[in-house]
């Protein structure tokens, strides 16, 4: 049975008073500078020391030039985040080393979350239901060699000359890539360890929210390439753009592209194969968009740049993160209550399944408001289906599955046959 009804969610723009706005740079002015990679590590370590119940830091590894790829996880009761019934949201930036706004934006976001939890109930509510994973720079070597320029490419690539946003496995192309950049491999391994429900990659060079597909083989560049979750991605993209201070405005803000509502389909804009956005959606069930934060890639005035980008994107980042708890959520267990992983969740009418990746069997499947048929299946178990599941606009629909192993049923049948033969 196919999808019965689905309605595009009416976007509720976050009001200016929904969350208390303040700029962490007021207390830590270094956040309004072009700080280096060591400063990111020291800042994360300080936040962990001051907020040990909320913050956990790590490094994904060393780049070829010896820089750490710093990561911070922020949520309530952070020591138990891996087993908590909370979806993960992953924000990364600076994939192209000369596109710099996201570095400051994510470092400020980390400070804001950690420092507001005790005093702001709205922040507390979000952190009690969501796990944030922030990586301010995933190409620190590139940033170290970048120079101030609005349109140049110095620092764009990794130290071995790789464009990271052309370096991920592609579901469109057969064969095995012989080599990935070290930074790409670190992110791929990280995605396997940290299964995120939603993601954003922050870039510069335009002002727009870009959504999949970035590239489809049978559709020319400049033409629309819809993913199976196209309507959902449009809603996600608008959630970000309409909560931004100016992204949604009907004008060619960077002097070239004119994006209606501040959003674009990737392939419609220009085709990209082997990009991270499509890879995360197809291979990791992470619903990721790409945010272009500004026209100039590496402005000379750091204080103005980071002050503006924080106020412009403040509401958008929170509004987007709340979508992780939309659609359907639940847990898959066996008959004894043991959690099951690698279960396939299928929604009729949408040609995109997701896998249950959480160690405790929890899952989250973003969906628009509507009525759906949903099933859970796993090799060796009987498939369980639910029909006419209603998804509301403002809250997730709880849906738990208990799967029965086929071997257990076969064993019961054998015992019955033996009893009858006696």
Describe the structure.
- Helix content is 28%, strand content 22%.
- It contains ten helices and 17 strands.
- It has helices spanning 37-50, 101-116, 121-127, 140-144, 182-193, 230-243, 266-269, 276-284, 302-321, 406-421, and strands at 5-7, 55-62, 68-74, 88-93, 131-135, 198-203, 206-211, 263-265, 287-294, 328-334, 344-347, 354-355, 362-365, 369-377, 384-391, 397-398, 401-403.
- The strands form three sheets. The protein has an eight-stranded mixed beta sheet, with helices on both faces. Strands 1, 11, 12, 14 and 15 form a five-stranded antiparallel beta sheet that branches.
SSE layout:
Blueprint: E1 5-7, H1 37-50, E2 55-62, E3 68-74, E4 88-93, H2 101-116, H3 121-127, E5 131-135, H4 140-144, H5 182-193, E6 198-203, E7 206-211, H6 230-243, E8 263-265, H7 266-269, H8 276-284, E9 287-294, H9 302-321, E10 328-334, E11 344-347, E12 354-355, E13 362-365, E14 369-377, E15 384-391, E16 397-398, E17 401-403, H10 406-421
Parallel strand pairs: 4-5, 4-6, 6-9, 7-8, 10-16, 10-17
Antiparallel strand pairs: 1-14, 2-3, 3-5, 7-9, 10-13, 11-12, 11-14, 14-15
What do the pLDDT scores average to?
Answer: 92
Q: For the largest beta sheet, what order do the strands appear in spatially? A: 2-3-5-4-6-9-7-8
Main beta sheet, described? 8 strands, mixed
Q: Per DSSP, what share of the residues sits in E-state strands of 2 or more residues?
A: 15-25%
Rounded to an integer, what's the Rg over CA atoms? 22 Å
**Helical amount:** 25-40%
Oligomeric organization of the protein chains:
single chain
Order of helices and strands: EHEEEHHEHHEEHEHHEHEEEEEEEEH
Q: How many E-type strands? A: 17
**Given the C-alpha coordinates, what overall shape results?**
globular
Please report the number of helical segments. Answer: 10
Give the low-pLDDT segments: 1-17
Distance between the termini: 45 Å
- Based on helices, strands and strand pairing, what is the structural class? alpha/beta
